[in-house]
Amino acid sequence: MAKAGGIAADHLKSFIERIERLEEEKKALGDDIRDVYSEAKATGFDVKVMRQIVKIRKMDKDDLDEQEALLETYMLALGMRGGRAAAE
To answer: Is 50 exposed, middle or buried (0-12, 13-18, 19+ CB in 10 A)?
Structure first.
């Protein structure tokens, strides 16, 4: 194994090449995801809402419950729940 400055060059090169392959795969997956969203949009779905749903589905239930409770509290405080007259 070649060493340069105390670094195992072959080992380092192996890590770098693995990372590069994974980066290529990540880009390909990103392209595939973008294609799916484009297809969904072409059939009439709202991509912005779909992205929110994907984000929510990734969340832990407790975190989601806390976020929803805070959102409800803030909306009540701003008069955004219980009718428009509450905001005026």
So the answer is: middle
- Number of domains making up the chain: 2
Do both 14 and 37 map to the same domain?
Answer: yes
Residue 85 has pLDDT above 60, yes or no: no
Q: 74 pLDDT exceeds 90? A: yes
Is 0.85 topped by the overall pTM? no
Domain co-membership, 53 together with 33? no
Secondary structure of residue 31 in the 3-state scheme = helix
- Please count the residues of the chain: 88
Place of tokens 């428009």: 84
Verify that 51 and 62 share a domain, yes or no.
Answer: yes
Report whether 73 contacts 80 (CB < 8 A). Answer: no
Task: Tell me, yes or no, whether 38 and 73 share the same domain.
Answer: no
